[in-house]
Amino acid sequence: MEIAAGLWARGWMAAALALMPAAAWAGPEARFASFDYDGQSIEQVTVKPGAYRNPILSGYYPDPSITRVGDDYYLVTSSFAHFPGLPVWHSKDLVNWTQIGNAIDRPDQLNLAGRGVSEAVFAPDISFHDGTFYIVNTCVGCRDNFVITAKNPAGPWSDPIWLPFEGIDPSIYWEGDKAYIVNNRGPDETPRYEGHRAIWIQEYDWRAGKMVGPSTQLVNGGVDLSKKPIWIEGPHILRKDGWYYLTAAEGGTSVDHSQVVFRSRKLRGPYVPHKDNPILTQRDLDPARPDPITSAGHAKLVQTPAGDWWATFLAVRPYADNYYNIGRETFLLPVQWKDGWPVILPHGERIPFAPKAPALPPQVRPPLPTSGDFAYADSFEGDRLGMQWVGVRTPDHPFYRLERGDLVLASAAPLGDKAGTPAFLGRRQQHHVATMRTVVTFSPEQEGDRAGLAAMQSDDAWLFFGLTRLNGQDAIALYTRAKGKEQLVASAPIANRSPMTLTIRANGGTMSFHYAGAGGMGRLAADLDARFLSTQDAGGFTGTIVGPYVWTR
């Protein structure tokens, strides 16, 4: 399916957040002249001709779901409380991906107010039937499970159709003209332990937009209930050679993560687990191995027109122990069928960084790459932000505009205030080694007013680096918030309010902060311990988002 030309210069808040004239804004503004990013992989990898680079989507793009329509592949990933949400991707070779839209891109489409950063939109599933694309998803803390549809995968996507069942990670299995939703729910008994869940199936009337008929439990607990498996989730069903295959993640989305498979001759079971489960994991490898890839699971299989099978899945690349600040990423591997069962990776094998590419017509590297080392610069030209920019929660009023090559922000809620939406726009930190830079112009009027760069992992794990008013004087300052405590790390007075270049350099678990302008220049802090931005310390399911932020009293 071809994507219509002109499709998607569309940016976030396109429908509801029309650009607001400056006269309508109150209080001091901050102007940002650019945002530059330059990222390098922490591991040294040579990609030979005919190979590709894992991960295929670097940085915080977890829980991938993939579907094929003709020669085109479409993929969607989780976004939690970031808005716009559910980024939608397109590829023709499974390796080079281009974001074509965000399925959640209107504030009135899905209300994320009050949701923590790692709540809201969990693992989505994308499918195609009878000329329409479907995404079925869960909004944790909202109204649970829903379906949205679109004729074009780039959008616009419909408002949600809410579904009356509990649990997470729904997906649609299509059989002829019928649809069935399979998802994680509680078991049909009192849970025996923490993490005891089950996989259920129920028919979905896609014409009427409602669930019909009985729900049937397909898997109770996981592969072997006697071993107390946890968090069976992310289920998908496919049919091959007279068998129904149910694949699902098991073990939780950390170092014990895995992908398992069951099969049955009948759609509603009984399902029997593969004797050589899991079909993908890295938990059986030496944790001290160099350049580890860990936490692999949450896979979905797709077949090429030639009959080859591939799987997209999430995994992470720690820089030390189980520390990673950039979130869970999307990987790709071939699937082999052995004795009637799919195998993504044999036991004991490491996920390769540069495997052999699919036998598909190779495509050119996209203008905005998603794998390997890359850099980009956003000069804020035009009248819409690029679709890669995200904020936190759905805003109830506009807080930004684009004006003569500047991004102009007006104050909203402070970072960390779950009841509001901060005037923060960021992009994913996609490499452990990365340089992020902006030029800001701002005149703080009151003590504590601030504008500059923020790096945010959650409402309780973030930092701010930029211009502020401190003890009655203009200053450059670095603040951090970790484990509920905000502190001033470093500050320096500045002589005037001219534009200031702010640079953050990340190197694994540390960050350094540099500033330069007519009002002063220097290194404000070096080798800050930034592990508080890691999933290991901050918890949750996201990665670090970095970008412009302003707050005034």
Summarize the structure in words.
The chain has 553 residues and is mainly β. It contains one helix and 39 strands. The strands form eight sheets. Strands 1, 25, 27, 28, 31, 36, 37 and 38 form an eight-stranded antiparallel sheet that branches. Strands 29, 30, 32, 33, 34, 35 and 39 form a seven-stranded antiparallel sheet that branches. Strands 7, 8, 9, 10 and 11 form a five-stranded antiparallel sheet that branches. The longest helix is centred in the last third of the chain and has 4 residues, at 535-538.
Rg computed from alpha carbons, rounded to a whole number of angstroms: 23 Å
Q: Counting H and I runs of at least 4 residues, what is the number of helices?
A: 1
Shape: globular
Task: Compute the separation of the termini in Å.
Answer: 50 Å
Structural class: mainly beta
- Helix percent reads under 10%
What is the arithmetic mean of pLDDT?
94
Largest sheet, if any? 8 strands, antiparallel
Flag low-confidence runs.
1-24
Strand content: over 45%
Number of strands: 39
Brief sketch in words of this structure:
The protein has 553 residues and is mainly beta. It contains one helix and 39 strands.
